Amino acid sequence: MKAKALGVVAGALIAAAPLASFAAGLPAPFEGSSTLQADGLVKSVDQVKHSVTVLDAQGGEASFDITDPASLAQIRQGGKVHIRMVRNAMVSVTRGADGHGAGAGAQSAQSNTIHNVTAEVQTIDHASGIMALKSPNGAVFHIQGREPAKVASVTPGMQVVVSFAQQVDVAVSPAQ
């Protein structure tokens, strides 16, 4: 019951974060996507479960549920493949580059929800809408805003909360 109550509180804070950002004069929340691409060696293919397990160049192993199972017919154990994962996200600015804004509520919501990441804007290409973001653990990842005009007022140094969708689109194809 306690975990459920925390989830409700976290959900309320996440829902309120965009309103607080807008009220604080920060850019309005906007939609974007994160794309990860990697090459690997197929360890196994499960046609029934529509999944593939891949080894990367460092020996790491990951399994992927493939969105379009028709592509699995071309994939063989031991073959080289290219994996492409796309996940939608909502980006909310919580603090400006000057450190002012509505960060506290959004950051506490982040700690109770596994699909949110707090990050700092490192760089931004306003023409394409692509932002390089740095998470507290030092990992740098990229988000592309769906509408570059909506990211026009985002600048390096701003703090954001990225809320990732649970659904991930995964495609696999033989490597060239």
Strand order of the largest sheet: 1-4-8-5-6-7
Helix content: 10-25%
Summing up helix and strand content along with how strands pair, one would put the structural category as: alpha+beta
In total, the number of domains comes to 2
Stretches where pLDDT is under 50 for at least 5 consecutive residues are 1-23, 103-114
Q: Write the H/E string, N to C.
A: HEEEEHEEEE
Describe this structure in words.
With 176 residues, this protein is α+β, with helices and mostly antiparallel strands. It folds into two domains: 2-35 and 86-172, no CATH class; 38-81. 18% of the residues lie in helices and 45% in strands. It is built from two helices and eight strands, in the order H-E-E-E-E-H-E-E-E-E. It has helices at residues 2-23, 103-112, and strands at residues 30-46, 51-55, 61-65, 80-95, 116-125, 130-134, 140-145, 159-174. The chain has a six-stranded antiparallel beta barrel. Strand 1 (30-46) and strand 2 (51-55) form a beta hairpin. Helix 1 (2-23) packs antiparallel against helix 2 (103-112).
